[in-house]
């Protein structure tokens, strides 16, 4: 299990039990909901569509969105009541539960259903095959993080031992991985968008494979809240989920260009054409979930990936940490 969860959550799980919930009042006409997202990414396009198109406002919700910049910080915000809802990888809810929490964090609305990273090669490869990674220098992600776990899962799927068949570099901070590759480190690198497409546009690298396509459906990013918050704010959770579902349907039925235009205000430093490229790439591989249901098959796939990476503390049943009732209700 991630060391930062072992170190930090032990204290937080005790502390948050005595802090009053920051639940928004069900009696107010407009309710404020504090949402902490793990990072700011085009990967989460439906969330920004829901904000930009006023879907939350239609439900009587005022969303206060903050970017936590890290799974540990996002979960800490929820556990300490600094946030009501988190948008983060489902694996974090498993790490929290493994700390014997008596108020577990429940996944209630899935946003993305595949990994969002791509394999980028320094050299242009016309006919890529995974065995071409053998003997190469590979810039990976942080040990225990979902991108790295998925990356290793895919490598093993193609009979590549990450520890024996290539030189895996993992001592570079997440924010500095693109710069390291651009400066000449590594033959291959695992990157999120829009960095992967930007490198391709600039001629610094070439996208040769998608980890999302290779790993299958997995609850990569979901909205989650403490069980106590969900029970005390059932109507708010339903309204929130309905707004998310509206956005998912909107993204699914509109073009990449229309989606890019809708969310551009959240990515002011990114060229509109690049946003469109990224949205189109994610849409074409089915990254954006078209409904908020996190099904059991996806949950089991997540745990299989974690177990393969040696990061699964214990098997946890789908109905323990996933609530599909709310999503099912709003879809009717």
What would you note in describing this structure?
The chain is an alpha/beta fold and 332 residues long. It folds into two domains: 3-114 and 218-331, D-Maltodextrin-Binding Protein, domain 2 (3-Layer(aba) Sandwich); 117-215, D-Maltodextrin-Binding Protein, domain 2 (3-Layer(aba) Sandwich), CATH 3.40.190. It is 43% helix and 16% strand. The protein is built from 16 helices and ten strands. α6 (146-157) links the parallel β6 and β7 (167-169). α2 (45-52) crosses α11. The radius of gyration is 20 Å and the shape is globular. The model is unreliable at 10-27 (pLDDT under 50).
List the helices and strands and how they pair.
Elements: H1 3-15, E1 31-37, H2 45-52, H3 55-58, E2 61-67, H4 71-79, E3 85-88, H5 91-97, E4 105-112, E5 117-121, E6 137-139, H6 146-157, E7 167-169, H7 177-182, E8 188-192, H8 195-202, E9 206-210, H9 211-215, E10 221-226, H10 227-232, H11 234-253, H12 256-263, H13 272-284, H14 296-308, H15 318-321, H16 325-331
Parallel strand pairs: 1-2, 1-3, 6-7, 6-8
Antiparallel strand pairs: 3-10, 4-10, 5-8, 5-9
Helix pairs in contact: 2-11, 2-12, 11-16, 12-13
